[in-house]
Design goal:
Blueprint (H helix, E strand, L loop, with lengths): L2 H11 L1 H18 L9 H12 L14 H10 L4 H39 L8 E4 L4 E3 L7 E7 L6 H20 L3 E7 L7 H8 L7 E4 L2 H10 L24 E4 L5 E5 L5 H19 L4
Parallel strand pairs: 3-4, 4-5
Antiparallel strand pairs: 1-2, 1-5, 3-6, 6-7
Helix pairs in contact: 1-2, 6-9
């Protein structure tokens, strides 16, 4: 009987012996290998075992524990924390209500200014139809779209009328240099008997080149003077060859682009007074309507 046959017979006869033999064989096999694991430090083995047994951190239970993902999130968000977001929103809301309140105050202030001007503004002006020094028809609608300075006088006036027209022309020249031709100078005669169209044409050439001279029938001029509250003493039946005196109001009127009265300038007013008043009104108009005329 061979040794292999004998070993198999013994294994079948005694399972315990077979198990012991395998154990012994395994032991000899392991001992015959190089002890590689003996060179690994015990501290590293302990660290690995401790790490493998430790549960992963829970961010909810420990908020101070930061993961690599949390660090990336913080670097992406930066300093925009919930507190900063609340401050930002609160500041924006506060600024919104502040500027809205300031805008309402400004609108109310302008409304009061318009009311004050309307209350203190006399009813000056009205419809009329006259003839220009060029023989063209001129009505109150031709005043629209420009500022106007209107003087009532007569061509035979020795000194006051030329002085006032010189003052008005000088003011218009200064305003033209600043704004362009947005102010229209106008002369209206209160002496229709002697101030014919050719006579008015010769007269206005002595003053501003854009000065418009107006004349007409006595009744028409009388109605126009009444609308503008101008006094004049020309006799209704006067003729060109008659010897008579003409007395009249010494004012020229400042009208806005809607044909409404703004102010009046008398003999005591200077060129700078006129220019300053027009500049102030033009600036107010531009703030309110976004344009100068």
């Amino acid at each position: 009987m061979s040794a292999r046959t004998l070993f198999a017979a013994c294994s079948r006869a005694s399972p315990l012996a077979s198990s012991s033999s395998r154990s012994a064989f395994s032991t000899r096999h392991v001992l015959s290998r190089p002890l590689i694991s003996a060179t690994v430090p015990s501290s590293r083995l302990c660290t690995r075992r401790a790490y493998s047994q430790q549960a992963p951190p829970d961010p909810k239970l420990n908020p101070t524990q930061q993961t690599s993902s949390g660090e990336r999130d913080r670097s992406t968000v930066g300093v925009f924390t919930p507190t900063a977001a609340a401050l930002f929103v609160g500041t924006g809301i506060g600024l919104f209500f502040y500027f809205r309140n300031e805008k309402e105050k400004l609108i109310e202030q302008r409304r009061k200014e318009r009311e004050d001007q309307a209350v203190g503004r006399p009813q000056v002006g009205g419809p009329f139809t006259l003839t220009t020094h060029k023989g063209e028809t001129f009505t109150e609608k031709d005043l629209l779209g420009k500022w106007s300075l209107i003087y009532f006088g007569f061509t035979n006036c020795p000194d006051i009328c030329p002085e006032e027209l010189d003052k008005m022309s000088a003011a218009v020249e200064k305003l033209d240099a600043q704004y362009g031709p947005i102010v229209q100078p106008i002369f209206i005669s209160v002496d229709p008997a002697r101030d014919t169209v050719p006579q008015v044409a010769r007269y206005v050439r002595e003053f501003h080149p854009r000065l418009v001279g107006l004349t007409g029938a006595y009744d028409t001029l009388k109605a126009t003077c009444k609308a503008y509250r101008v006094y004049f003493s020309t006799p209704p039946d006067a003729r060109a060859g008659d010897d008579y005196l003409v007395d009249h109001s010494i004012f020229f009127y400042f009208m806005d682009p809607e044909g409404k009265f703004v102010d009046a300038f008398g003999k005591a007013s200077t060129v700078d007074d006129v220019v300053g008043r027009v500049q102030k009104e033009v600036a107010r108009w531009e703030r309110e309507y976004g344009r100068k005329v």
